[in-house]
Amino acid sequence: MVAIIGAGPVGNHAAAQLCKRGFTVDVYEEHAVIGKPVQCTGITTFFLNNLMKPKDEFVVNRISRTKVFAPDGSSVEIALPKNYIVDRTKFDAYLAAVAQSEGANYHSHHRFIRSEKRDNNYRLYFANGKEVVTDHLIGADGPLSAVAKSNGMFGQRKFIIGHQARVKIPCEEDLVEFFIDEGYFGWSVPENSKIARLGICSLDKAQHYFDKLYQMRKGKILEWQSGIIPLYDPNVVTEKDSVYLVGDAATQVKASTLGGIIPGMMAAEELARALAEGKSYERLWRKRIGFALWTHLMIHKIMLQRFKEKDYNKLVRLVRQPRITTLISTRDREFPSLLLAKMALLEPRFLQFIRFLF
To answer: Are the CB atoms for 318 and 350 separated by under 8 Å?
Structure first.
């Protein structure tokens, strides 16, 4: 038996993968409705096609261009392999339905409190008074994972603040905008021609930076969708006896863009494989996405923690070269190391930014 705590996209994908391999799976969700509250921008790369077929029932928009703005107002526009904007509530519900069709059992209003190891299994305790016994426990319960805390796996993780609102504002449907500046980066992600998801991420002063972005893209705020995002920790412990962490609970988030859906789903597939084949989950997920997550972390350290305004301005000027924009437009950003190497070969001046690592 397998118990999964958290019915987000990663927990749901893990449930489906495990059921396909013959496991009995129960998913426990603290909220009444899967996918709520929303605390995510909901943008995924074209790589989603490698994991599942995007459906119109949860895809609200498709993006084919991005425009990146430097602090001095200069910008660069880049064509993109198709990106998908998903309705997170519908997306999560769809993945839960897939898992249920494979045989997974779902339990709402079950807020996980703690677990105790009993011989070869675990007893789980929930806020509603229920107690459950399971052979394997999977924490897919987000950045503040109670499963990680209960089993001594939380560590010294760090977080980024994400502050986002749905804003009624005219926008180009196929264009996502990014704003890079000292202390934060921001985005405007269109749901359609009239509504965009406007937000920022920063280490601190989130409201200040959001207000700064809002002055550039002012509109009627319809809804707030804020939360914290874990910063990837290469030393995170994700496997301990028969307890496993996946997704945000395992800090498996791209630190450069703070997207966690796709790496989390890939890790969920490796977790299902590990349990079915008696292999190490740690080794499998690190082999598949560990280096990519480390590369994103290095990009984060350079840009969000150490760049000054002049460095962002210089970066955008270098990227504006047609040979660089053409190269970027052909690559998916899930695995950035090869792209960065090719950019440096085409334009050696990118190598000057390596000094920010030290």
So the answer is: yes
Statement to judge: residues 30 and 120 lie in one domain: yes
Q: What is the pLDDT of residues 306-347, one digit of tens each?
A: 899 999 999 999 999 999 999 999 887 788 888 899 999 999
- Would you state the structure tokens that stand for residue 8, as one six-digit string? 């987000």
> Is there a single domain that holds both residue 12 and residue 118?
yes
User: Which residues does 153 contact at the CB level (< 8 Å), separation at least 6?
Assistant: 139, 145, 147, 236, 237, 238, 240, 243, 245
The 10s digit of each residue's pLDDT in 117-163 is 988 899 999 999 999 999 999 999 999 999 999 999 999 999 998 89
Residues 134 and 137: their CA atoms lie apart, in Å, by: 7
Q: How many domains does the chain have?
A: 3
Coil/strand/helix, residue 357: helix
> What's residue 39's pLDDT?
66
What sign does the dihedral 200-201-205-206 (CA atoms) show? positive
Which of these, 215, 226, 219, 236, lies nearest to 163 by C-alpha position? 226
Return the SS3 of 119: coil
> Are 184 and 319 found together in one domain?
no
Least reliable range by pLDDT among 101-110, 172-181, 303-312 = 303-312
DSSP annotation string for 51-118:
TS---TTTEEEEEEEEEEE-TTS-EEEEEEEEEEEE-HHHHHHHHHHHHHHTT-EEE-S--EEEEEEE
Q: Are residues 189 and 54 in the same domain?
A: yes
Question: CATH no. for residue 172?
Answer: 3.30.9.10
In this structure, are 102 and 7 located in the same domain?
Answer: yes
Distance of CA 327 to the CA centre of its chain: 24
Cis check: omega of the bond before 230, within 30 degrees of 0? no
Tell me 347's DSSP state.
-
pLDDT digits (tens, 9 = 90+) for 26-39: 999 999 888 777 66
Gyration radius from the chain CA atoms: 20
* pTM, entire model: 0.93
Mean of the per-residue pLDDT values of the chain = 93
- What pLDDT is attached to residue 156? 92
Instruction: Give the domain extent around 134.
Output: 2-38+88-155+236-300
